[in-house]
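If you are new to this repository, start here. Below is one unmodified record pulled from the training split, so you can see the exact layout before writing a loader.
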Amino acid sequence: MEFRGALPNPLKMWWYFAAPIALPFAVRIAWEKMVWTWSRGPQMVGFSLMHIYPGLAIIGLLGSLGVMLWLLPAIAYSIARRQAIGLADIGMIACAVFVTAAITIPDNFFA
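And here is the target side for that same chain:
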């Protein structure tokens, strides 16, 4: 099996399916944690999203968990095949790190 870059094709396909769901959700959560907390004070992050669009919130959370799980083998492959790592691989890992940071940083970190 031949693949370009450090990441194998099944891992790339996993990212292509999970990232379009996870990235908008993570951007919204990061926006609420940073900008709304700075301008409006401490709040329940994700409360309005869950109560207005519960399906979107649940699917976004599952996609985010998928991307966070994807990050574990992706980092291992990137370290093992670091000579073959490409710009697309770095972009995928950077987006996954952003999603992980947006979800795991405590809500009151920016308060």
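Two things worth knowing about this chain: Residues 9-40 form the longest helix (32 residues). The chain has one domain: 9-104.
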